[in-house]
Amino acid sequence: MPLPDDLSHSLQALLGTRFSVTQADRGHHAQSESFHSAPPPDAVVWPRTTEEVARIVAACADAGVPLVAWGAGTSLEGHALAYRGGVTLDLSQMDRVIEIRAPDMQVTVQPGVTREALNTELRATGLFFPVDPGANASLGGMASTRASGTTAVRYGTMRDNVLALQVVMADGRVIRTGTRAAKSSAGYDLTGLFVGAEGTLGIITELTLKLHGQPEEVASAVCAFETLDHAVECVSATIQSGIPMARIEFVDAATARAFNLHSGASLPEMPHLMVEFHGSPGSVREDATRFGEIAEDFGATGFDWATTPEDRARLWRMRHGAYHACLALRSGAKGVVTDVCVPMSELPAAVHAAAEDIAAAGLLGPIVGHVGDGNFHSLLLVDPDDKAEIAAAKEVARKMAERALSVGGTITGEHGIGVGKRDLMAAQHGDGWQVMGAIKQALDPQDILNPGKMLPDRN
Amino acid sequence: MPLPDDLSHSLQALLGTRFSVTQADRGHHAQSESFHSAPPPDAVVWPRTTEEVARIVAACADAGVPLVAWGAGTSLEGHALAYRGGVTLDLSQMDRVIEIRAPDMQVTVQPGVTREALNTELRATGLFFPVDPGANASLGGMASTRASGTTAVRYGTMRDNVLALQVVMADGRVIRTGTRAAKSSAGYDLTGLFVGAEGTLGIITELTLKLHGQPEEVASAVCAFETLDHAVECVSATIQSGIPMARIEFVDAATARAFNLHSGASLPEMPHLMVEFHGSPGSVREDATRFGEIAEDFGATGFDWATTPEDRARLWRMRHGAYHACLALRSGAKGVVTDVCVPMSELPAAVHAAAEDIAAAGLLGPIVGHVGDGNFHSLLLVDPDDKAEIAAAKEVARKMAERALSVGGTITGEHGIGVGKRDLMAAQHGDGWQVMGAIKQALDPQDILNPGKMLPDRN
C-alpha cells in the first residue's frame, strides 16, 4: 500500500534522495537473518540527525502510518520487518561517534554505529565496549533488543552498559533518559524501559555507553569433552566456583563439525568449551589454572591455548561464525534460531533435554551457548519451503521455551520477542504482559511504533 | 479524615488487630529519619501475605483511598509519609526468607525482611547480600528507592541485584516480573521499572535477589589527607586505575570530629578515606598495595588497617553511624540530608563547590560519600523550628543538585525523590518527567499509590 501523498511529499521534501520507494530499497528491508519474512515496507528513509527523526515520526504520527526502526538488520525474531507496512527508518547513516570521555570511561554514539566500528574507534584509548552478540550489530539495535553475547558473563548485557539515551517519542517529542552518573534514584528508570523495548516505545537517536579498560592480559583456550553433559556440568561448576570468566562458550559436536568443514578448524567432533580470561598476568594465570582443574574433573581433553592476539581473534571469529558455518551443514537451509536462558543449576538438564527433543524430531539442530549465564541457542536447520519441517522446528523451540519457564527461566535470554516469540509472552508474564500493553498504549496510543511485535493485541 | 466506614469494616474483618486507627500507631507512621514531616495516615495495616495485600489494595481502590507502603521507615525524602492521608501499609510483618537457592546464588524474600536479617540468615551458606545503604532498611524499601550505599562501587545497586518481583498492582491484580535466569530479553523490563518507583506503581510483595560469594579475604583501612581536594582526587585516580575497590568512602574533617566525639574514634580532624578490598589473599594484597601507592601520591598519612573481623565491623559501624554522630554535633538538630551523583571526573570540583556553598551559608554540614561511584551527601544540621535555617539548607541542597545536573550528573544517586526533590524533576528530566507521569496514569489511573510523590501533577 503506497504512503498517503501528503506524507510522501513531506518526507521527500525533508530528505531528498534519503527517502525511497524503489523496489530494491524496500526489498532490502524485507530481509531477515533468520526464517522470518514479511512484505517490504512502503518506503525507506535514512535520517542523519535526531531532528530529522523527530520530524519523520511527527509526520507519520499525523498520517497514522507505522514506523519500524532498522539498525544493521541482524536481529533474529523478525524485529525489524514491516508486517503492517509503513516506513522503515534505516538508522545506518546515523553512524557518528559523538564523544569519547576516556576519564569517565564513557562514549556517546548515534544509534547506527556498529559495535566493531566503535571498538575500532576506541582502540587507541585503552578502552573497549564489551557487549558482543557475534553479529556486527548496530548499537541502537543492540540496545533495543537488550543484546548480550559471549562476554555478558563478565561485563553484563546492554541493560548494564547503557547509561543514557536520547529518544524520539511516538508524537515526535525528544526526551533524554538517564545521566552520565554511575547511578541515579531520580524517578522511573526510563533508560531501562527503552532498552529491550524493540522500538515499540520510541526511537533511540543517541546512546551513552559504559566502556571498560582493555584487560592487561588475555588468555583463551578451547577444550573437548566426552559428552554434552560433561561439558555443561563443567560450566555450572566453574560459575559456582566464582572464577571470573570473561567468556565461557559451549559448542556441541555438530558445531565442531561445522567449524571443521567451513571455518578451517581441526577439532575432534565432540562437545567443546571455548573460554577466555581477562585480568592481570597473575590473576589470569590463577583463573586459568583453577578452570583447568575443574575441567579436568569433568574429563576435558585436548586443551588448545590461543597465545597470540591473532590466534585469539581466529578463535572468536570461528565462534562468531557458528551460525553461518552451521547453516552450511545443509545446503539451502534457513535457520529457525531460538534461545532460552535458565538458572545455572538448571542448565545441564535443559541442554540435555533440548538435544533429545531435536534428535526425536529428526532435525539437524546444532546447540551453542553463552552458557556462563545459562543462555543457550539451537540453530534448527530447515528447508524454507518445507512447512512441515518449519512447524517441527518451531515445536522444538516452543518446548525449549516452555521447559525454560518451568524451571524459572526465560523464553529468550538475548534474541528478544519480535514476532517469533510473541505467542509465548502470556505464558511467561501472565497479567504482566497486559501491564506492558498498558505502558505501550500510554506512550504510543496510535500504535505506530513497530506495531504487531511483542505486545498483546489492543482491545 | 477517618476512612469510609465500609473500608474500615472490610479491613477490620480481613485483618483483625492488624488494622489500627489508634493515635499511637498512626503517629509512629508520621515520623521520618529526616526533617520531612506530614500528618499521620488515617489507618495502619500490617498484612502478612500477598493475598492480604491484594485484598487491601482492591478495597482501597474501590473506595478511592490512598495507600502508602512502609518498610523500616528509614527513607530520607519523605517517601513513606501519608501527605494525602489514607492507609499506611506497614510491611514489617512480611518478614520471611522464603527460599535460599545457594547453587544459583539467589534468595527469595518477603519485602519486610531487613538487609541485616537476611545476612544473618545467609551466614552459614558462604553467600551474602551486598547492598548496604547504612540503615538497616527493609529489602522492599531498598528496592523501591533503588538504594545502594557503600558497596555499590563493587556489587552494584538494587537495580543490579533484583532479579524478579511479585507486585500487587493498583487494582489488586498480582503480577510477577523477571525470572531466575541471569538475563532476559522477553519484553519490557518491568522489574527495572518497579525498582526505584517508590511505591507509586505497585506494592512489592516478594523479591528474588542475587547473592554473592563471601570474599575469601577482606582488608579494610582508613587514611587521612591534608585537604578535601586531595582525598577526592585520590578517589578519582583510584577508580580510573581500575582497582576493583569493594568500598571507598569519603568523610570530611567535621565527620571525623563527630566520630571522635560520638563513636569512640581518635582520628585526626582531617578528611579521610575508608577503603575495603575483597578477593583472594593474593589479589587483596595486590589491590591494597596499588591503592597505597596512589594514596601516597595524594599525600595520604596515618594508614590504619583493620585486620580482624571485629576491627572491620567497628570501622563500618562507625561509618554507618555517621548520620547520627553528625546529628549529635548540634544538640536538637534535624538533618536536611541530600545526595547527588556526578561522573567521576567531575567529583573533585563538585565536592569542593558543595563545601564552599555550605561554608558560605554559615551552616554546619558534614560531607560524606560513596565516592567510588561519584555519589556524595551533605548532612545539613538545622534547628527544626528555624524556618530561615531550613530554607538556607534547602537552598544549598538545590545548588548541589543543579550543579550535578550541569556536569551530567543526577539530583540523587540513592536517596530518591519522595517529596523532597520533586521540584527538581523537571530540571533533570524535561519532557521525560511527563513520560513518567503517563506511565503512572496508565498503571494507577486513580492515583491511589503513594500520591503526591515524585511525579508531575495530573492535568
From TrEMBL, chains A, B:
Its cofactor is FAD. InterPro entries: FAD-bd_oxidored_4_C, FAD-bd_PCMH, FAD-bd_PCMH-like_sf, FAD-bd_PCMH_sub2, FAD-linked_Oxase-like_C, Oxid_FAD_bind_N, Vanillyl_alc_oxidase_C-sub2. Keywords: FAD, Flavoprotein, Oxidoreductase, Transit peptide. The keyword Flavoprotein applies. PROSITE patterns: FAD_PCMH. Transmembrane segments: none annotated. The keyword Cytoplasm does not apply. PANTHER family: D-LACTATE DEHYDROGENASE (PTHR11748), D-LACTATE DEHYDROGENASE, MITOCHONDRIAL-RELATED (PTHR11748:SF111). Belongs to the FAD-binding oxidoreductase/transferase type 4 family. This is D-lactate dehydrogenase (cytochrome). It comes from Paracoccus fistulariae.
